[in-house]
Amino acid sequence: MTNKKQMKLSAYLVGTGMHAASWRLPDALPGASIDIDYYVRLARTAERGAFDFVFLADSLAINEQSHPNILNRFEPITLIAALSVATSRIGLVATASTSYIEPFNLARLLLSADRISKGRAGWNIVTTRDLSGNTARNFGAEKHFELEHRYQRATEFVDAVLGLWDSWEDDAFLYDKASGKLFDPSKLHRIHHRGEFFAVEGPLNIARSPQGYPLLVQAGNSEAGQRFAARFAEVVFAIKYNYEDARAYYADFKAKAAAAGRNPDDVYILQGISPVIGATEEEAVAKRRTLESLLGESEILGFLADYFKEIDFSPFTTETTAREAGLDMLEAANPDYRKHKPVIARENPTLREIYSLIIGSFSGDHLVGTPEKIADTLELWFRGGAADGFMLMAPALPEGLDDFVRHVVPLLQARGLFRQEYAADTLRGHIGLQAPPNRYAASRRAESPAT
Amino acid sequence: MTNKKQMKLSAYLVGTGMHAASWRLPDALPGASIDIDYYVRLARTAERGAFDFVFLADSLAINEQSHPNILNRFEPITLIAALSVATSRIGLVATASTSYIEPFNLARLLLSADRISKGRAGWNIVTTRDLSGNTARNFGAEKHFELEHRYQRATEFVDAVLGLWDSWEDDAFLYDKASGKLFDPSKLHRIHHRGEFFAVEGPLNIARSPQGYPLLVQAGNSEAGQRFAARFAEVVFAIKYNYEDARAYYADFKAKAAAAGRNPDDVYILQGISPVIGATEEEAVAKRRTLESLLGESEILGFLADYFKEIDFSPFTTETTAREAGLDMLEAANPDYRKHKPVIARENPTLREIYSLIIGSFSGDHLVGTPEKIADTLELWFRGGAADGFMLMAPALPEGLDDFVRHVVPLLQARGLFRQEYAADTLRGHIGLQAPPNRYAASRRAESPAT
């Protein structure tokens, strides 16, 4: 059975879970979002489940309405560096934005984490969703970059970073103690990047890792984001709330990757899922109900009022529908809303459901139930061309991950849908990708005659 | 015996050691500078020796003449995050420059590492020595900032970072599951920083650590650097090559700290030392000779030609003296030279010795010999008012650290000069400093009447 026939699994780690009320559950650990021992346990659980990688999201600003699990949390690259030492096989993907840091700094931080983990790091490339509306002001600007501008900048940024990552060819270091020749200077390169947004000379002061460089992950939903992902991403992360939408997205994105000159089989699409697992269907439904009941009216309406600054939410309740609130027709000033608007206009959810959609913790009925039901859904989506794998965005942690590893993973393994154990040592190895060749070594090989 | 009566010890970790030829020693590990298992071993050795902290230097550019151990190395903040998980008590100090990163990003990275290590991180604040002459070009500029400008910028940078680190008061998080009150919004703060160089709004999305925030370390040698250190630094790191210079520096710096309104006892001065340890004096001298013999003429002269671009070194050998080369009178374009010029003008060293001075791997005769001799020197410097402690810049690693921990530390302990074991859990605790109060909590306490 080829690697391509098995699904990929990733675990989204975020404090007590994706659900904004998860911190109020009886077993939720106070301070989970900033507890390194807790994150080590989560990562080891995912590794025990032979997951391809754990995933750390990020944001560059908070305000009083932010999700409880992002108010106080680790910076993702330092976190994956720490998790590297506490794990041995699992991939570690950190989110980092291209919008507010120099390419040289980010190239170094990420490749350093990749070396520390011996080739298990990934970079989730974002241009920053400005949910709080105050990101720019943390970096000396008044207004966040517009979407199109952000992706133009991101494209040049990633080009520069990829160039820096090739500064040293893989066989540049000789360590010839007898002659005193430490390295071959012809295998050390400067990129001399001079672009519209950045000038970066190089070389970088760190060399490539066992997997070449960090795996490139992306979650672009806008047209600009998908163009960007089609060009660069090796793993794409999306959230679709039903099978049809997921299949349509999958087919469309693979076509975009092909149009961008990529082999669509080399781009893996993971669908974000927030399953609620119970021993019986009733138990799972009750669990979801408990979580929902812990989410206060004022938190939901307060978040939405901050997100949609143009709407007065005081006349509404959490059961008000999108149409009643006028959200289906709104040209929202918040650019993040673009990706949610089509589904909201079509499905007319309540404000409570809209909140879950925006926060990314919506659990559709197809993902609430027994381990068998969850496995059935994942098998359908995987075999039916809706996903190459899944990003487990557990509503409540550690329970949602523990239960998935204990009860769902063995079912997927028994059905031949998921690996029994790791077969590789690097993240690209888990995914089934080769280390990308160094551009300078590749061009030298292309130039030299066959021997 | 109070904490203040015992010396502080730190280990400077850099690949195969400070000496530029250390990688050629028979036991030197190829790729040591980028081997995480090796760094874990070094950190654990220092922890076994009850060192206050390990220290990671940094630079933001390399060229073909750079020190072998900096060509390919970990970024320091990711490295200390990783070492946090592999150690439990020792402090972990990372160097980071204020010249080419946004305050919000660096504040986050450092406080994240401090939280990951449970209060064991330190920040060695640098404005970047541009040894390679091409730092600026990695960050979109042609010329590196001038010294005075760098420190003006650094002062504002550190002010902003310290403000961001106080975003959350220590008791801001309530985790009140019953009422749904996660935090007290009156204890979340924005700094609204608007300065000459930076605008930073806040709040930071991570809260203070068990030691408040990372220990502030500095190694400024210029007047501007010392002014800066006198204001901010809790630990100062200097390199003086004889007792008289070290005593003069110590007295002068303590006076500067007092003039800046600090208690001079709260600023700890560590002197950098590069001891060569042997079972006998002869063995140590032979070791130093072996190291020197492994350093090629061309490496030394190539480095110096790159460092002093205004001088033609082709007529010289490594035994040419400073006066013969005209270095004693030179107004060097390289600003790093300012700190070495007085000692070079006075002592007239050879080019080989000047190279060691600049690289920071010079081993004076008082530090070449038996463990007893090394301990005698350290005791003299410590009791004589030349140092509050030492930064071990071992010429060769791991040997130089292993030998020091095995043979010198027990002598210092037997003489009551150094702790037998750790008495605290945080880096500030090891040093003997309290966690700094949160500025907002402190001002609230000052305002409220005594009860």
Number of helix segments of chain A?
Answer: 15
Biggest sheet character of chain A: 8 strands, parallel, barrel
The SS-based structural class of chain A is: alpha/beta
Number of domains of chain A: 1
- CATH class identity of chain A: Alpha Beta
Model regions low in confidence, pLDDT < 50 over at least 5 residues of chain A: none
Report the mean per-residue pLDDT of chain A as an integer. Answer: 93
The CATH topology of chain A corresponds to: TIM Barrel
Name the strands of the widest sheet of chain A in spatial order.
Answer: 1-2-3-4-9-10-11-14
Instruction: Summarize the largest interface: chains and residue counts.
Output: A-B, 71 and 72 residues
CATH superfamily label of chain A: Luciferase-like domain
Overall body shape of chain A: globular
Second CATH tier, the architecture of chain A: Alpha-Beta Barrel
Percent of sequence in beta strands of chain A: 5-15%
- Helix content range of the residues of chain A, please? 25-40%
> What is the oligomeric state here?
homodimer
Q: What is the count of β-strands of chain A? A: 14
> What is the succession of H and E elements of chain A?
EHEHEHEHEEEEEHEHEEHHHHHEHEHHH
Task: Please state the CA-atom Rg of chain A, rounded to the nearest Å.
Answer: 22 Å
Spatial gap, N to C terminus of chain A: 36 Å
Helix and strand topology:
Two copies of one chain form a homodimer.
Chain A (H helix, E strand, L loop, with lengths): L7 E5 L23 H13 L4 E4 L19 H11 L4 E7 L5 H14 L4 E6 L20 H19 L7 E4 L4 E3 L9 E2 L4 E2 L14 E4 L4 H10 L2 E4 L4 H17 L8 E6 L2 E2 L3 H13 L3 H11 L14 H4 L15 H7 L3 H9 L8 E2 L1 H13 L5 E4 L6 H16 L12 H5 L7 H9 L4
Parallel strand pairs in A: 1-2, 1-14, 2-3, 3-4, 4-9, 9-10, 10-11, 11-14, 12-13
Antiparallel strand pairs in A: 5-6, 7-8
